[in-house]
Amino acid sequence: MDLFNYSRRSANIVYIGGKPLGGKYPIRLQSMNNTLTQDTQACVEQAKKIADVGGEYVRLTTQGIKEAKNLMNINRELRSQNYMIPLIADVHFNPKVAEMAAHFAEKVRINPGNYVDSARTFKHLEYTDEEYNQEIEKIKERFIPFLTICKKNHTAIRIGVNHGSLSDRIMSRYGDTPAGIVESCMEFLRICVEQDFDQVVISIKASNTVVMVQSVRLLVDTLNQENMHFPIHLGVTEAGDGEDGRIKSALGIGALLADGIGDTLRVSLSEEPEMEIPVGRKLVDYITQREQHPYIPGIIDPQFNYLAPSRRNTHSIRNIGGNQLPIVIAERIDKKNDLFNPQLKPDYIYVGQELPSKLEQEMEYIIDGNQWKGEEQTWPAFNFNQLDLLQNCKCELKFFFLTYMGLNDDVIQCLKNHPEVVLISQSNHPNRLGEHRALIHQLQVEGLTHPVVFFQHYNENDEEDLQIKAAADMGPLIFDGYCDGIFLFNQGNLDSIVIDQIAFGILQAGRLRMSRIEYISCPGCGRTLFDLETTIKEVKNATKHLKGLKIGIMGCIVNGPGEMADADYGYVGAGKGKISLYKGKTCVEKNIPQNEAVTKLIELIKSNGDYHPIKDE
After folding, report:
1. Structure confidence at residue 234 (pLDDT)
2. Which segments in the chain show pLDDT lower than 50?
3. 65, 165, 194, 355: least surrounded by Cβ within 10 Å?
């Protein structure tokens, strides 16, 4: 893989109804019904909505044999109305259901974590090598008959691993790690190869974007080592709704798409399923437009580990670099919008040629370096684009805009003499990620440890467009360990306070800087036995003023407890109108009536001493 130049990974072709994927086919978009699979008409109408907005596959939950059999009726009714969108059956816990679904769906998704292994209990179990191998043989006994049925019916499969539903067996050997997630997938893939079955798509998902990206990177490397080229489905599970869901999805999915990984994807939003498709379309179009871009001659830092990156070693300059949290720089050049969200105040405000008279004076300002008057300065910080000004200015903190092609011998020598400089990486290249990466790698090769803030400029009038593009651009840089700060500059018609919010949202989605509460919420499906969207709003309204917590809101137990192992508290559907509450991965109260559950959740948070409202500053 070329870190600096975009090209798509080569994958096998998998035939899913009339919509093949992999090979030279476009990246396919899909969503999932949240209707009851036994309700034929509801499923058909929702599948039509997904198809009408550009969805190319629709997935339906199949809890049991009855649901699997009803796929025949759903499929037949769709075809009678001239909707040819392929159906994907989503199966957990029961191989017999998968075998039945293979007769009526174009693809069947199975989860290695619960296909043969028991549901995850979070108990530490010890397996000898012999016992472990015996479990693999059990998988073969149950999995090979399924593959035989799929061959006969020309049904594709997806081996879909979720971080939240790894088996206790995998956990015992590998722990809660990307290596364990990948091995859970590879166990089944090796059986497919042994059985000469190649109509397989793979997915690895997590609500934690760092885990998701590192796991998929490791998966691709493992596939290459074993000479496998199966296509990959991308998604960030339990991404949430609104801005959070879009930023989190674009950050994780976009980081992998930017490296050429991914043949189909789903943006999992806790909203109506058809809302997911336009977001996915914007993301795919934004990334793939960089195809055939001008070549970037980057030099790889030999110390960089793409599969397990760590944060780049930088020196501290005031509150920037070192082990400090990444900063947010915002602009207020035209002074038209001088408002700030008290919870999301940028660390520095770029004001251009002159200091403001109306903005809050306790804010930290960056002013253009040509305004320096020759005196020694400790405030404000200066921004430069000329070396002579930078070298002469007596200021304890200087920002220097720099492109990859501008990193010449004079600049390198200047930086070696001026440790007080924070670099602002900028690029006008069609593949700006490639140039940002190339600059960082060159700094590393030169032994320069100056902190780097990434300047990302846009001209967007739509808030969603900026969320998707900015998150996709920052994702790889965050996951590579290179982000000391973010500077979003938008020339379109969006309020500055909105841009600030997106910048902080990106850092939070990348697990770099928690500035508000985080919600891990599933998109819902036919297993969900309560109104998920309304419930999410209720939980958010009751908790949005709290600071630094992660709360999981899950429709059922398939992935709920597992994904919530990364959350502080969990709210999980336990049955029709019933909710169970979790502290971490431990269930502390079961089967609470839904109309009491939000109040009980607040009581649980308070009883554990975590009820800390955000204070206006």
Report:
1. 98
2. 616-617
3. 194
- H/E run at residue 173: helix 168-174
Q: What is the pLDDT of residues 372-381, one digit of tens each?
A: 877 776 666 8
Neighbouring residues of 39: CB distance < 8 A, sequence distance ≥ 6: none
| Dist. CA 430–CA 216, nearest whole Å | 25
| Conformation bin of residue 46: beta by default, left when phi > 0, alpha when psi is -120 to 50 | alpha
Question: Do 128 and 37 contact (CB within 8 A), yes or no?
Answer: no
pLDDT per residue as tens digits for the range 392-451 = 888 889 999 999 999 999 999 999 999 999 999 999 999 999 999 999 999 999 999 999
CB count within 10 Å of CB 376 equals 8
Tokens 């994907």 label which residue? 88
User: Residue-wise over 28-41: b if at least 16 C-beta within 10 A, else e?
Assistant: bbbbbbbbbbbebe
Q: Dihedral of the CA atoms 291, 297, 302, 306 (nearest 10)? A: -10
pTM: 0.90
Neighbouring C-beta atoms of residue 447, cutoff 10 Å: 8
Distances (CA, A) of 560 to 210, 267, 586: 19, 18, 11
Tell me the two tokens of residue 188.
């089944």
pLDDT digits (tens, 9 = 90+) for 14-32: 999 999 999 999 999 999 9
DSSP state of 334: S
Return the C-alpha torsion angle 77, 82, 85, 90, nearest 10: 0
Tokens of 86: 């392929």
CB of 35 closer than 8 Å to CB of 43: yes
